[in-house]
Write a structure and sequence with these properties.
The chain is mainly alpha-helical. It has 3 helices and no strands.
Length: 76
């Protein structure tokens, strides 16, 4: 449950930052916040929420990986 709360808190914080920058510094600032947010959320999803050892431990063999199995316990 703690992981899901952390997900929500991070998304809300990013949305508040995005809206604040959009109101006061439109243009390049919004693009930078959007790109930075996407990059940080992608890193967060790949390295914080999922256990990379479990993800890499699945044989690829052309089958899709069930990412629910690679989630860390706080996000299950």
């Amino acid at each position: 449950m703690r992981g899901k709360v952390l997900d929500i808190v991070l998304l809300v914080a990013w949305a508040i930052l995005f809206v604040a920058v959009a109101n006061f510094a439109p243009g390049v600032g919004v693009a930078l916040i959007a790109w930075g947010g996407i990059a940080v959320l992608g890193y967060y999803n790949s390295f914080v929420r999922h256990d990379r050892a479990l993800d890499l431990g699945h044989p690829a063999l052309g089958r899709r990986v069930n990412h629910d199995e690679t989630l860390r316990p706080a996000w299950r």
